[in-house]
Every structure is written in C-alpha cells, then in structure tokens.
Amino acid sequence: MFRRVTLLGGGVLFLYAAMGALLYSQQRELIYFPTPPAEIDQYELREITAGSGDTIQVWRRNTGKARALIYLGGNAESLQATGALLRTLFPEYAIYLPLYPGYAGAPGEPNEQSLYDEALALYDDIEGRHSEISVIGRSLGSGVATYLAAERPLHKLALVTPFDSMQSLAQEVIPIYPMGLMLRDKYDSAARARQIDAPTLMIISGNDDIVTRPHSDRLRVAFDPDQVEQVVVEGSTHNNIHMKQEFAMALLLFFDQLHRRPQLQ
After folding, report:
1. I need a surface site. Which of 122, 138, 221, 232 has the fewest CB within 10 A?
2. What is the pTM for the complete model shown?
C-alpha cells in the first residue's frame, strides 16, 4: 500500500512538473495572439527605425495636427474598427496606431520589453512635431501605456479594461503554479502608478470576464486618488466595450471633445 501511494505521489509530482515546464516554455504563445495583416482606411503605414535599429510599423493620420494621440491596442484587437472609431471621435488629432512586433505582419517577436521599446521609440519619433501627446491603452495595451506614461510626459492617459499586472491575472487563472517565478512578461502597471503624472481615466467593462473587476480596482487604488477618474460601462464585456455609447462619451469628456457626439451602433 505504501509503495502504491509513493508511486501515485511520484506520478502526480511528475505530471505537475511536466505541465509546469510546458507552461513555462509556451507562455508567450498563451499570452500573445498576433493579428493578420490588414489595411486601415484613411491611415497611412509608416516605418520607424528605433534606436536599437529595429523597424517599427505604425498606422498614422493627420500628422500635421498639434495634438497627438497614440493608441496601444488590446490582444487580437481589430485596428481597422478601432482606427475608424478614433477617426470619428478625434478628427482634430494626429492619431498613431503602432503594430506590436509580430502583429499584422510587423517584424519582430512580441514580448514585454519589445512592446515597451516600440512605444518609447514612437513617442520619441513624434515628440518634436506635436504640442501635446496623449495615450489610450486597451487591455494588453494598458500595460504598455502605463510604462510609457512613467517614462515620458503625457498630456492625458486613458486606460480601457486595464489590469494591475499580468502576473496577478495569470495567478488567478492558474493558481497551482507560482506565476511570480514562472512568468517572464509581467506588465506591472500597479507598481508604476505613482510614477505617472498625467491625468488618468480608467474605463471599465461592467461584465468583464477576462480582466475581472478586482484587477482594475487594485490598479485604481495604486494611483493618487486625485489623479484618476473611473467610468464603468454597464452592460459591456471585455471585447465589446468600444461599441457602447458610454465608452465614446467618456473619451470625449476626458479629452475635452464634448462637441463631438458620434452615433455608435
């Protein structure tokens, strides 16, 4: 009996270790979901050479405008739909939609540092051409946006369906493994919150089943309470929040564009 228990215990430990090794080796395939190449109507695609020599691809429009808006998208997000929405909401802004490394045919491999480096390179490339630069980061992009906001001065920062850290999210989904030790890409927005000076808006989905409410709440309390405001879009999910009128109105109010009242379906 003792031998059977020992063998069973050894088998369970072997399976646990084997699954953990697989999870560790394949973690980036489980985090990043690159999108296929696609055109974005009324935007032009430009390549930027970063300081590292890497090539960055960015869709842009209205580059002669004084105010600029960088949009850092979510995982597997359709930038065609997002580009059209931003074009409607912010016709008087220069808009920049960078393609993450490995996404939509862009060169490189997606990882935390490569996304950070790309955001910094884009900011530094456009900084001299605009009187102010604001950033919107959605979901995965919120983690990149908080990094950029901690490293560079922004006029305003909007975070859509944001989370405290990727490590916290992963630990909730896979509680049996020590994700703090295993996870390479942690996107720790909560740890950076007090380094951010820009006025910040958080737009949260009322029925988010991917970034559950406690993760957004922990990020909010990490900020100075006088710096951040929060809007909850009731009846929305993680993936359809951008289709709600309340979402558009929250952005228009935050960016002082109330004269723009788009009609969303």
Report:
1. 221
2. 0.92
